[in-house]
Design goal:
By secondary structure, the chain is an alpha+beta fold. It has four helices and ten strands. Strands 5-6-4-7-9 form a five-stranded antiparallel β-sheet, covered by helices on one side. A three-stranded antiparallel β-sheet has the order 3-10-8. Helix 2 runs antiparallel to helix 3.
Length: about 250
């Protein structure tokens, strides 16, 4: 029994020696990536920007109704919202481009000094949707139509502008970002007195679709506003970044 115990101890000692010998000062790797290699070469960030004219306008709009009872408030809201949706579709907004974003029914209260407590004075129903307008030039007329249809129940929070398909613009921005990165790396190489090698690592930053918001802040408008509500989409700055590592050539 003692013999077997001595053999086991010997095996443990041998494994320990092998383990320590594997902890030499060589390159540290994770999978096939050499971590130490990230500390060599020339690392730069490049930025590419493209100016884009928006082709989509998205309205945040809806209705808000208040009455003594939930049933009354909900009925008023339903009638007004139905009129608003009809105005949207009649103005060319597709059903698929109208989406409910917020619906709420809550008590409206006030402080009663005589009772020394909050008392319920009514109920408020809010129903908000987003409407995507694919003809940006029609944004103003659509707002006017919605305001006329919803009357005093109308609520318009804001309007945002975006690009339906930003893919070709990102391709342009990507080219500019790579060119920018190469120019920076070349300058650093010249200043350091070394030769710029080939890229050894390229990473693109997270892409966020460009959206620009404008406050509209309408509550209710006259039934037939004149002139048409002016809406200016302006331009969007689409930006993309890349990180590139270049080797230092011999």
């Amino acid at each position: 029994m003692k013999k077997y115990w001595l053999v086991a101890v010997s095996l443990v000692l041998m494994l320990a020696v092998v383990g320590f010998s594997g902890c030499s000062a060589g390159p540290t790797t994770i999978g096939t990536v050499d971590i130490n290699s990230q500390q060599t070469g020339i690392w730069v960030n490049g930025t590419g920007e493209v100016t884009v004219t928006p082709d989509i306008a998205t309205l945040s709009l809806g209705i808000e109704a208040q009455a003594d009872t939930v049933a009354e408030a909900q009925a008023q809201a339903a009638v007004a919202m139905d009129a608003v949706r009809t105005a949207l579709t009649d103005s060319g907004v597709a059903d698929k481009d109208i989406q409910t974003q917020y619906f709420n029914i809550y008590q409206v209260t006030r402080w009663d000094d005589f009772k020394d407590q909050q008392v319920v004075i009514g109920y408020r129903v809010t129903n908000m949707v987003t409407a995507k307008i694919r003809d940006v030039e029609q944004a103003g007329p659509v707002i006017d139509a919605v305001a006329a249809a919803g009357g005093d129940y109308t609520r318009i929070n804001n309007i945002s502008f975006s690009v339906d398909d930003p893919t070709p613009y990102y391709e342009q921005a990507r080219q500019k970002a790579i060119t920018d990165a190469k120019a920076k790396a070349g300058q650093l190489a010249d200043l350091a007195g070394v030769n710029l090698g080939k890229p050894t690592y390229i990473s693109e930053g997270t892409i966020y679709p460009p959206v620009v918001y404008r406050d509209v802040g309408m509550e209710a408008m006259a039934p037939v506003p004149a002139p048409t509500t002016p809406i200016s989409p302006g331009e969007i700055e689409l930006s993309l970044t890349v990180q590139v590592a270049y080797a230092i050539a011999d």
